[in-house]
């Protein structure tokens, strides 16, 4: 039986750091893509602005959010993870991360591919918190689909 405790998630170094000191919070000068997501059940929100380089690379990201520690950490981690990726690569990362959150075992998670985002994987053991971790990814999908 899994011994993961919800309190352990809130003590995780990476999650605490990104929650307390979210990255990429300044608005981008030129916004090419934007996406938003809101969880109507708790009121958490995530907003992204993305600027692309001439080679369709994600050059800059602005993250704004309001909500719980997991939501804020996820948005901040995502904003760091997609910088320098193409739209296709960011979409692939999103698919892999969401799949990882929905898999029942931790062994099939490609930790190398998702990198520091791995800190959020333990959230999947608490079904009521999965939406918190995935809200930023919904906002990213909203931005990439425009």
The total strand number stands at 3
Number of domains: 1
If classified by CATH, what would the architecture be? Answer: Alpha-Beta Complex
**Based on helices, strands and strand pairing, what is the structural class?**
alpha+beta
Structural Rg = 14 Å
Q: Describe the main β-sheet briefly.
A: 3 strands, antiparallel
Average per-residue pLDDT, rounded, comes to 88
Helices and strands, in N-to-C order? HHEEEHHHH
Find the CATH topology. Answer: Sufe protein. Chain: A
Uncertain residue ranges: none
Number of distinct helices: 6
CATH C-level class: Alpha Beta
In short:
The protein has 146 residues and is an alpha+beta fold. The protein has six helices and three strands, in the order ααβββαααα.
List the helices and strands and how they pair.
Blueprint: H1 6-11, H2 13-20, E1 33-38, E2 45-52, E3 58-66, H3 69-82, H4 87-102, H5 111-114, H6 127-144
Helix pairs in contact: 2-3, 3-6, 4-6
